[in-house]
Amino acid sequence: MQGASFSPHDDQRYMAAAIRLSRRHLGLTGTNPSVATLLVRDDGIGPYIVGRGVTTVGGRPHAEPQALDEAGERARGAVAYVTLEPCAHHGRTPPCAEALIRAGVARVVGAARDPDPRVSGRGYAMLRAAGIEVTEGVLAEEAADLLKAYLTRSTKKRPEVILKLALSNDGKIGIQGEGQVPITGEIARRQVHVMRAEADAILVGIGTALVDDPLLTCRLPGLSARSPARIVLDRLLRLPIDSQLVRSAKEVPLFLAAGGEADPARRAMLKEAGAEFLAVEAMDGQIALPELLDDLAARGFSSLLVEGGASTAAAFLAEGLVDRLCLFISPGSIGARGIAAPVDPDHIPSGFRLLRQASFGEDHYFEYVRAD
Q1: Residue 157 clears pLDDT 70, i.e. is over it
Q2: Is pLDDT of 90 > 70?
Q3: Residues 14 and 138 sit within 8 Å (Cβ to Cβ)
Q4: Confidence tier at 1 by pLDDT (50, 70, 90)
């Protein structure tokens, strides 16, 4: 079997399958990206998959050695489809590019390029130097979209910020004084829980935490273990001890972004309940968000889902920190008592483009990404 015998259609087909596989461990691989590898042979009866791998929960092993282990001797002469350039640097284990060379693959088809200076271009160079044919950039944009959290943390040294808002048809996100108000239907709400399952952390402002008393976990059957870490912007530590967030802090991580002026006694009580703290700086009484994001990246967070509060959403937008804007639009209206959303499909900040749209039951979904 010759790797070059695969058509461009074959390459796109198997890379698309690899990209779908890579989604399996989004939000579960620590500082490493969730990458997938497929090994494909054609022994004269058409191509077929002989090995599959996706970055393991926690970040290691990487996808390539897992796919090679599954394929065994069938990896020799096969085509490897990798959603991110194979790593080229030595740690305690050899680089993935070297593993592919030792296994004798005939060709490597790559999607996104890794911006890590220890890897960028070097993985492909190692493969070519060993006589392996390399095809780069197959479905690169699609792969980079799923790898956006890792790529953002690598290049901007902060997490990818995903702002999610549920809006009524008249551009409102809630009702003054009413607490948590269902706006979208059950299907859309389930989709939001999928987003939570794929994020490293979820963030709300203290106003939302006080009014809504949210739990902020993933409550889809079988996915509760994929609940992200919860973060509350709570400079003065006003979050009640009996709130759902605090009561569940020993089961699902809870971080409170608090200033040095917060009451030490409350800090001690919250710590005893299981909460952890993020030290923050403040400007004009508001938490300095860029510095907070720097600290989150240093702790290993690559994706941050911002869910709660018009003022919190507006603050992230005003600082230019939003990378992905996800709007769920209900067909119903709220009226004059409603809380106006800081953004809607008719008022998208400059620098964003529409990436995809969909329908979830009667609700419409619009997803915008910032043009880098």
Answers
A1: yes
A2: no
A3: no
A4: very low
pLDDT in tens, 61-79: 999 999 999 999 999 999 9
Q: How far apart are CA 160 and CA 148, in angstroms?
A: 7
22 vs 47, 80, 115, 278, CA distance in Å? 21, 14, 18, 31
Binding-site residue ranges for Zn(2+) = 62, 87, 96
Q: Show binding-site residues for substrate.
A: 196, 216, 219, 307
Give the strands of the sheet with 36-42, arranged side by side: 47-54, 36-42, 79-84, 107-112, 133-135
pLDDT, tens digit, 9 for 90 and up, residues 118-142: 767 788 999 999 999 999 999 999 9
Q: What is the CATH number of domain 3-146?
A: 3.40.140.10
The CA distance from 285 to 58, in Å, is: 37
Q: What is d(CA 327, CA 168) in angstroms, rounded to the nearest whole number?
A: 10
Give me the pLDDT at residue 366, please: 97
Whether residue 198 lies in the annotated active site: no
pLDDT(324) > 90: yes
Q: Which residues are annotated as a binding site?
A: 62, 87, 96, 166, 196, 208, 212, 216, 219, 307, 309-315
What distance in Å separates the CA atoms of residue 51 and residue 38, rounded to the nearest whole number? 6
> What stretch(es) of the chain map to CATH 3.40.140.10?
3-146
Sequence-distant (6+) residues with CB within 8 A of 221 are none
Q: Which of 177-186, 220-229, 324-333 has the lowest mean pLDDT?
A: 177-186
Q: Which regions of the chain does DSSP assign to beta strands (E)?
A: 36-42, 47-54, 79-84, 107-112, 133-135, 160-167, 172-175, 201-205, 229-233, 254-258, 276-279, 282-283, 286-287, 303-308, 324-329, 338-340, 352-360, 363-370
In the chain, where does the domain assigned CATH 3.40.430.10 lie? 158-370
305 touches 164 (CB < 8 A)? yes
CB atoms under 10 Å from CB of 218, counted, come to: 23
pTM exceeding 0.70: yes
Give the position of tokens 């074959």.
10
**Span 158-370 CATH architecture:** 3-Layer(aba) Sandwich (3.40)
Catalytic residue among 64, 85, 98, 198: 64
